[in-house]
Specification:
- By secondary structure, this protein is an all-alpha fold.
- The protein has one domain.
- 49% of the residues lie in helices and 0% in strands.
- The chain has four helices and no strands.
- Helix 1 packs antiparallel against helix 4.
- The longest helix has 14 residues.
- The chain is flat.
Length: 74
């Protein structure tokens, strides 16, 4: 599971019902659903959460892949 997914689920930004739907649709594993709302949001944890998200969204931390739309290269 990606670290960003863990942070968002643990923060409670996505509720348990939505996470359960994402699991049903194959987007989350059951273990990931159990992370929902694990962290109690206080001013300090929210600030830490924002800093962690900022780091995880830095361009160098994001995996990139190339997609070739024209297999002939033309």
């Amino acid at each position: 599971m990606k670290e960003l997914t863990k942070k968002i689920l643990a923060s409670g930004l996505i509720d348990k019902a939505t996470a359960a739907l994402l699991e049903r649709w194959g987007q989350l594993d059951p273990a990931e659903v159990d992370l929902v709302g694990r962290e109690r949001l206080t001013k300090k944890t929210l600030e830490d959460f924002v800093e962690d998200i900022e780091i995880l969204l830095q361009p160098e931390s994001i995996e990139r892949s190339e997609t070739v739309l024209d297999p002939t290269g033309g």
